User: What shape does this take?
Amino acid sequence: MLEFLIRRVAISVVTLFVISLIVFTGVRMIPGDPARVMGGTDADAAGLAEIRQKYGLDDPIPLQYLRWIGLALRGDLGESIRTRESVVWTVGRKLPITIELACLSLLVAVAIAIPAGVFSAVRRNTAWDFLVNALSLCGLSVPSFWLGIMLILLLSVRLHWLPASGFVPPWESPLANLERMIMPAFVLGAGLAAVLMRQTRNSMIEILGADYIRTAWSKGLAGRAVIFRHAFRNGLIPVVTILGLQTGALMGGAVVTEQIFVVPGFGRLIVEAVFTRDYPLVQGVVLVTASTYVLVNLLVDLSYSVLNPRIRIGGAAGGG
Amino acid sequence: MRRTRLGSWLVLGLAALTLLAAAPAEAQKKTLVVALNQDPDLLDPTLSRTYVGRIVFEHMCEKLYELDEHLRIFPQLAAAMPAISDGGKTVTIKLRSGVKFNDGTPMNADAVKFSLDRHREMKGSNRRSELESVNTVEVVDPLTIRLRLKSAFSPLVATLADRSGMPISPAAANKLGDKFATAPVCVGPWSFVERVPQDRIVLEKSKHYFDPGQAHFDRLVFRIIPDDNVRLANLRSGDIDVMHLVAPTDSVNLKKEGRFEVASVTGLGYTGVTINLRNKTGKTQPPGDLGTPLANDPRVREAFDLSLDREAINQVAWDGQYTPACTPISPVSPFYDKSKKCPGRDVAKAKQLLAAAGLASGYAFELTIVNDPQQRRFGEVIQGMAREAGFNITLRPSEFASALTDDDNGKLQAFAIGWSGRADPDGNIHQFQTCGGSLNTTHACDEAVDALLNRAREISDQGERAKLYREAIEKIQARRNVLYVYHLNYIVAYPKNLKGYKAVPDGLIRIKGVTWN
Amino acid sequence: MAAETAARLRKRLWRRPPAVIGAVVVLLFVVLALAAPWIATSDPQRSDYGKIRKAPTAANPFGTDDLGRDIFSRVVWGTRISMQAGVFSILLAIAIGVPAGLTSGYRRGVTDQLIMRLTDAWLAFPFLILAIGLVTIMGASLTNATIAIGLAATPTYIRLTRGLVLSTQEEEYVQAARAMGAGGLRTILRHILPNIASALLVQATVSIPAAIIAEAILSFLGLGVQPPTPSWGTMLNTAQQFLETAPWMAWWPGLAIFALTLSFNLAGDGLRDLLDPKDY
Assistant: This one.
């Protein structure tokens, strides 16, 4: 168990290192002179030289990288060019919002997908199964930004049931916060639910046909107990895997959803930062995103050992 | 057993809903929410560059002079119009007494001198070129300052009616240095409370302002909503009160609906197509030959100009809500030449000109536009119209800041861009059209034009100045380094029970004096 | 023997009408894309300033947009963009991903570790954010958007191929062949490629619709196709401003994306069943 743990963590660290390299070089490749962007239209040659010196833009790239990484490890990701706020501070303010959105979306997705998936697995090849499958396909195929726009048009403008957009922190007013998060959470969750629905169904069917389930049946345990205690736990494994992998999709999907619903979260921050060439912010934000993904997947892998002890011995699941 | 528990939860939930829903309605009355379309950059008058920043400053950083809705300049933090002497080279300004900054410290001549010097000299200041004509700032007495200019400069007062004329609290500036923007302190009916980037800026009624009766709201919240659609939806649902920059089509609908007041005023600025003439390596570098017909042959530019139907562009792209233009001076300005009419479309002549330039089979060039839906539409209309005359235009949408950088560096052939405009016509023309002007990215250079524009900023007689500008604009229109196409109308929408709003041609939203019915 | 297999496959296919419908619709869109010049009723870029934002009529079955252009023609021409972006981006991903996965799976050792760590890192960036970043670096255009999407989709194919290589190597007949001395690349390829083909095809039917939506999103954000070329994403972006006065501007491009993606997913489902039938 310990060996497995260490191995997994070591792999994650290497991955994080590679990520930081990609982020750093990637940002350096964005066209446009960062000094000019920071200096603005009125900067003259002397002003530009000042900026280059302050940010060390003239140093060799490896040195700049090491400096950045060194500071990052100490928790300093630099300053946003536009607002002069510390990147860590900005990220710290926005990330919880997107996390809240992501969690709500997961809730929505799980609340829809798991019952639907289990239901269609138990009632497989009937009209219900077909209906669930159709719903899932629609959820996969509908473009989220279109769905978002249509929802705003219907629920905010026409029916006035929900506010169109914005964000109110949950400690200010939990109700106002939820009012504004329902639609974006639904839009994000719908796509995720579609994927989850099918995966749940498939893995439930597999599990239900598995040997240890048959054993449980034969031992006379009541039907529902069998499903929920044994099948469920194991059926969760691939579902959890998907959740881990989908974190990336969620963060990406959050980009457009946050634009449309004007949620001041991470997704909008990334787009703004990229569009305004705010290099320190872009670097910091992308680094945090990718690292979160790695962390989540690490947790997912570690949770396997909780869900199915057999995996502990079997070695790492999936890639590497 | 289960059902009743569910029932009681439902009832509790509904009760909570109604309670919480009722609360915001009361709070809204004392707080006014204004939606802006962009996030201001640094809230530091010395460093700020954005237009929307000026809207926030209106409420928390007042200035020495201010504009009224007829574009007349009147004293705000100054006590009177400045006394000009010494052939225009000395400007003496008396300050209003009893004025305090929002941190309680007094606004006196020392503080104003401190601020002006900061605007002129601080590293990275974006006010430097505006105050270039100022040699020194002296304190005459605690309520009088004197500016000694290098040469007479009549647009100075108009400049002091903008960020350059905003005094800031020396105490706060010394404490925060170049981080002043994180907690700015000036003179204003409201003072800065907090800012969440890309979301909101919150101001609250100032305890130190000298005329507190003008601030009828306890809190002013500026929400940043870049998406036009979402901003409008928020207006309709009541989540915001005042909407900045209503899109032209939406304004037509809003007016029809009748639920909101829609105030439209022709702005001071212009939007057009800036054509690069000789900027090869940068606006501060020596000019070079670009080797293209567009840059070198005025006939090609004239053909392009003639292929545009400005009235139709206004109709199609802006639903007729903006104002067609062919000069840098807006119709609202007293310097506007009412006698001149804009040239109409003449495709036949355009084709002739292209043929004379040896381009009868057509000519292709790239037009860079700012990447937003409005400008894209503008670009596409131009593209379609010019095609009929034989121009094959490729549109290149670009993000605003990088487009400006490219423009500076001479990388663009043609750029659809505007200027938000200044009260004094000098602010719309001089830096763009003089040889070596700080914003002259086209490297257009004509000594005759320079002479006219320089003279116009030295004398103060309005009639004389207007004549000089007329002459200069004729020459500028002939060389066509900037094709002026329209003046943006600033359209603001707000609920009908909001009273006292005055639309000023600079387009800035002013909540001072505004109140609920 | 081949006739029997074909007959069996056909029978299985008919059992799933949705898959057939999906495949047919995809083919329809392909035809639409190829035959756009003949199917479109007018020039998609021709503006009629007298007909701005008009509701659907016989002359303009989908209505007109904010510059008086026929929406039907623009949707038809937009099919080309979406199909191009969708298909070519995934072809790129396969072209890079498969060789990389093969190398990684066959060679093992340091090469494998290197490629896998790179892939892990690559996968850690959300697909869309990666695409946005790449387009920002390369500049906005359809080609760059296609390349960006392809690059963002590559790691999936690396992992897929590698996994297949590894599992095939475990197969007994391969081990037997090895024991007989016929190890090496050619053997692996001969045994793996047929399997890979079907797995790739199935994955592609999932990737292509995702790529189509990605192109729409990039164009929606202004990072893809440039005006006046019609793309469903840019059309949706413009339509946002006119949702109340001209909602048809949003219906048709949105429906087109939906229909195309749905069809790919349906066809993909059917294909998956066909090639890897688990009797569910």
In short: The longest helix of chain C spans residues 71-107. Chain C has eleven helices and no strands. Chain C has a mean pLDDT of 82.
